[in-house]
Amino acid sequence: MTKVFVDTDICLDVLTGRKPNNVMAERLFSLADLGKIKVYVSSLCFANIDYILTQQYKRKDSRQAIAKFKTLVNILPVDDKIIELSIASNFNDFEDAIQYNTAIENNLQILITRNTKDFKKAKIKIMTPDVFMAKS
Hints:
By secondary structure, the chain is of the alpha/beta class. The chain is built from seven helices and five strands; from the N terminus they run βααβααβααββα.
């Protein structure tokens, strides 16, 4: 089974229905729901998701969406080593560094994001949802 690390932007696309990006995000998470791929996210992703969702929805609705979303993903911890690696990295965006290092430290070979330009020096495959879906 293919294992993929999914960046927060893709999670938010599906949870907020951001058009037109939600279409591919929904297809990606449908594969996870069907058991065809295994999706991993960092624990940091949930803090980011909650922050954005509570800007748009009532807290109760946000937490319900997060609880449902949690059933589709495997959550990876952000620990001291990942923070140290991220501090020492050459990423301009610290959150991207954390996401990348979480994927690397958990031996994941594919990171799915819409923000591929920030991962140019990556040692793993960086794909948009469109590219991943075309190859699946």
